[in-house]
Design brief:
With 126 residues, the chain is an alpha+beta fold. The protein has one domain (2-125): RutC-like (60s Ribosomal Protein L30, Chain: A), CATH 3.30.1330. Helix content is 21%, strand content 27%. The protein is built from two helices and six strands, in the order βββαβαββ. It has a six-stranded mixed β-sheet with strand order 1-2-3-6-4-5, covered by helices on one side. A hairpin with a 2-residue loop joins strand 2 (20-23) and strand 3 (26-29). Helix 1 (47-64) runs parallel beside helix 2. The longest helix has 18 residues, at 47-64. The model has no long low-confidence stretch (mean pLDDT 97). Belongs to the RutC family. This is 2-iminobutanoate/2-iminopropanoate deaminase. It holds the Pfam family Ribonuc_L-PSP. InterPro entries: RidA, RutC-like_sf, YjgF/YER057c/UK114. One of its GO terms (molecular function) is deaminase activity.
């Protein structure tokens, strides 16, 4: 059985997908970009602010499922420029305890939705 997770505290889906799907005890999130959930404004002034908005969106999705970053077991980070890795990693890392951080991959891609610089998705378990 699957449960669709939806919260107004993260950007609404702009296509045929859900913010997240809970299957049993496992949560699969869609990728989050730096859209402000209330204004719809795209936050792209600098990579630190952009990544922080992505992580805040993800925090809201996790909370809607009754979870936190402590529940995350896997993260996927997609970046448009690996040159931004250090700044992205610094913001991302501030949301986790390094000793219990999830598995992760970071992949440079040619383009991302709305031509953002970073998109992150996660898998979490209760």
């Amino acid at each position: 059985m699957k449960t669709i997770i939806n919260t107004p505290d993260a950007p609404a889906p702009i296509g045929p997908y859900s913010q997240a799907v809970l299957s049993g005890n496992t949560l699969y999130t869609s990728g989050q970009i730096a859209l402000h959930p209330k204004t719809g404004e795209l936050i792209t002034g600098d990579i630190t602010s952009e990544t922080k908005q992505v992580m805040e969106n993800m925090k809201a999705v996790l909370a809607a499922a009754g979870m936190t970053f402590e529940n995350v077991i896997k993260a996927s980070i997609f970046v448009s420029d690996m040159g931004n890795f250090a700044e992205i990693n610094s913001v991302y890392g501030s949301y986790f305890d390094e000793s219990t951080a999830p598995a992760r991959e970071t992949v440079e891609v040619a383009n991302l939705p709305k031509y953002v610089n970073v998109e992150i998705s996660m898998i979490a378990v209760k």
